[in-house]
Amino acid sequence: MEKSIKVFAPASVTNVSCGFDVFGFALTEPGDELVLRIKNRKGLHISSITGDNGALPTTPEQNTAGKALISMMNELDFKMGIEIDIHKKMPLGSGLGSSAASAVAAVFALNEILEKPFTKKELIKYAIEGEKLTSGGAPHADNVTASMLGGFTAVKSILPLDVFKIPTTLKLFAAVVHPQIEIKTADARKSLKKEVLLKNAVTHWANTAAFVYALMTGDVKLLSRSIDDVIIEPQRAGLIPKFFEAKEAALRGGAIGSGISGSGPSIFSLFDDFNTAHQIGSELKKIYEQINLRCDLYISAVNYDGAKVLG
Amino acid sequence: MEKSIKVFAPASVTNVSCGFDVFGFALTEPGDELVLRIKNRKGLHISSITGDNGALPTTPEQNTAGKALISMMNELDFKMGIEIDIHKKMPLGSGLGSSAASAVAAVFALNEILEKPFTKKELIKYAIEGEKLTSGGAPHADNVTASMLGGFTAVKSILPLDVFKIPTTLKLFAAVVHPQIEIKTADARKSLKKEVLLKNAVTHWANTAAFVYALMTGDVKLLSRSIDDVIIEPQRAGLIPKFFEAKEAALRGGAIGSGISGSGPSIFSLFDDFNTAHQIGSELKKIYEQINLRCDLYISAVNYDGAKVLG
Questions:
Q1: What is the mean pLDDT of residues A88-112?
Q2: What pTM was estimated for this model as a whole?
Q3: Which of A41, A113, A252, B27 could form a disulfide with B300 if both were Cys (CB 3.0 to 4.6 A apart)?
Q4: How far is A265 from chain B (nearest CA, A)?
Q5: Which residues lie closer than 8 Å to B14 by C-beta, 6 or more apart?
Q6: B72-119 per-position pLDDT tens digit
C-alpha cells in the first residue's frame, strides 16, 4: 500500500492578552502544509523541508512533526513506513505557533490517511509531544489546540489534558504584524516573574470568564474589555520595539483588542470588519518600516475549522 | 401618598472556589425580607430590625440597607420620606452575603415602588455603597450581584462596574453548612497573601474560563473539574474546623463541587439532584455535631431569579 495526503495546519495566536497559557485562536493564513505518504519501507523519514532556510532538523526525533508522529505511531503500534514533506509557509520564532502547526499537520495527516482512529481532540496529546521540543521540555497545549481545532480555544489543564473550543457566532478578523526579531519561547518564559499580585490575578480570571461569556453571547464590547493583560504584557513588551505605539494605533483604529501573540514578537489585533483589519494592519506595518525593521503583515479571518485536508 | 412594598433578597455563595472576588450564585433560602414604606415625613428611618439579636445599627448611615438607600435617594434627588423594616432571616457573618442581601433588598424595594427607574443591573452600584460598610471600606460586588440578579453571576470589574449573569440550563442544588463560628470578611481578607504563584493564577484563570463555558453548555463534568481553588482555600481552610473532612465527604457523596462560601465559615456543595443535596448536607451537619459545634444546614435550589417582590 502506498497512499499520500496533503494537509494544512494554521498558525495560531495564543494568550490573547488575558489568558496566558490558556486561550488561543487559529488564523486562516499563514500555516504549514505537509504531505504524508505511507510507504512499505519501514520507519519514519522526513524527505524534505522547505521554507525554513535550513533551520529545522530532518532527524525525526529532533523535529516537532517527526516527534509528534513517533508518539502517535507508538500508540497505534504502527508498523509500516511513513515519509513526510514539510512546507513551512509561516515564519519560525514569530509567536505564531510555527512548531505547533508542524506537529498538528503531521498527526492530523496520519489520522486522516488511517481513516480517523482518533478525534481531533484526541490527536492533541501527540502533537504536544512534538511541540515539547521547542518549549524547553515543558508541555504546552495552547498553540496546538488552536491550530488543531480552529476557532477560539482554551486549555483548562495539560495534565490531564482538558481543552475546549469556545463556540461563537462572531465573525472576527485578525491583523498580525511580525517585526523581524526573534524571541525564543523558552527565553521569553524564563524572563517572567514566578509570582504575581493577587489583585492582578483576580483581574485576569475575571477577564477570562468574561472573554468566554462575550464570545458565546456575541458581546463584542465586553470581549473588547476582556482582552487586557496586566501581568505578562508589562514584562514582555520591552522585548518588542514600538509595541505600545503599535497597540495604541490598533485600538485607536477600532481594534476589539490588541496584544502580544504568544511570546512575541508578533502583535495581534482583532477586528469585526475585514477592511478595518486591512487598513489598520497596513498602518502598523508602517510603524516598523519607519524604523527600518522588516515587518510581515498577515490579514486573516479567524479560522474556525483548524487543521484540514488539502488533497 | 403612603405606599408600601415587601421584598425578598436571597443569600449568596461567592468565589465558588475558582473565582475569588468574581463568581457568585444566589440561594432560594435563606435571605432577607424587607418592608419599605413611602411616608410624608421626610428622611430615611429604620423602624425595626428583627432576627439580628440586636447586632445591627438602626442609624441609616451605619446600616447597609440604610446606606444603600441614601446613595440611591441622593441620585434620584428623592424628597419624600422612607421607612423600612428589616427582617433578617439569615445568619450574620456566615459567608452567605448577609449585608449584601439587606442592601439589595432595600434598593430593589425602592426601585419597585417607584416603578423601576433603574434596571436590576443599574441598582447594583447603590447596593455596593451599603455593603462597603462591612467590607472594611473596600467595595465588593460579588454577593450583591448574585443576590440582585440571581443565578450564577460574575463581576468583571467594580470600577467601572461591569457584571454579567451566566446563562445556564442546568438545574442545580446547594447544600450549605454553617458551623457557628464567626469570621469577619475584613479579617479574612487581611490574612491573604498579596502575591500568588503565576502557575497557580494560570490554573485559576483557566478554571474561571472553563466554569463559564461549562455552565453555558451544560457540561456538569467540566463544571466539576473547574470548581477548584489552589490559592485562597489553602490559606483560609485552617479558620474553619473540619473543613477538609466536610469537603471530601461532599465530593465523595457526589457533589459537583464544594468549597468555602465567601470568606467562610459556611461551606457550600453543589449537586445536580435535590435528594443527594439533602442527604449529603445532613451528613456534613453530623460532622459538626460530633464535635459539638452548632451547625445550620440550608438545602436550596440555585435561585435563578434573585431579588423579588413578596407583596
A1: 96
A2: 0.96
A3: B27
A4: 22
A5: B21, B23, B24, B97, B142, B143, B146, B261, B262
A6: 999 999 989 999 999 999 999 899 999 999 999 999 999 999 999 999
B161 touches chain A (CB under 8 A): no
Same domain, A264 and A209: yes
Alpha-carbon distance B68 to B124, whole Å?
A: 10
Is the pLDDT score of A1 beyond 70? no
CB-neighbour burial class of residue A137 (10 A; exposed 0-12, middle 13-18, buried 19+): exposed
B307 lies in some domain: no
- Which residues on A lie below 8 Å from B216 (Cβ)? 212-213, 216
Cα within 13 Å of Cα(A199), Cβ side: 6
Within a domain: B311: no
Direct distance between the N- and C-terminal alpha carbons of chain A, in angstroms, rounded to an integer: 18
Examine the pLDDT at A186 and tell me if it is beyond 70.
no
| B309 domain-assigned | no
Residue B27: domain span: 3-167
Contact across the interface for A196 and B192, Cβ inside 8 Å: no
Buried/exposed B36-47: b ≥16 CB within 10 Å, e otherwise: bbbbeeeebebe
Using a CB-CB cut-off of 8 Å, the residues of chain B touching A23 are 209
Return phi, psi of residue A217, to 5°: -105, -5
CATH of the domain at A98: 3.30.230.10
Our count of domains for chain A comes to 2
B128 at the A interface (CB within 8 A)? no
Q: CA-CA distance, B309 to B109, in Å (whole number)?
A: 8
Residue B231 with chain A: CB contacts under 8 Å: 198, 201
- Omega of the bond leading into B160 within 30 degrees of 0 (cis): yes
Nearest-10 crossing angle of helices A120-131, A64-76: 130
Q: Which of B247, B270, B266, B246 is nearest to B152 (CA)?
A: B270
Residue A223 lies in a domain: yes
B159 and B177 together in one domain: no
B239–A contact, CB cutoff 8 A: no
Residues A85 and A215 in one domain: no
DSSP one-letter code for A289: H
- pLDDT of A11 reads 98
CATH number (domain holding residue A229): 3.30.70.890
From the number of C-beta atoms within 10 Å of its C-beta (0-12, 13-18, 19+), residue A308 rates as middle
Claim to verify: residue B157 and residue B235 sit in the same structural domain: no
Above 90 in pLDDT, residue A180? yes
Same domain, B232 and B202: yes
Residues B150 and B32 in one domain: yes
Torsion of CA A190, A192, A198, A204, to 10 degrees: -110
Calculate how close chain B gets to A208, using CA atoms only, in Å. Answer: 5
At residue B134, the pLDDT reads 82
Does residue B107 contact residue B127 with C-beta atoms inside 8 Å? Answer: yes
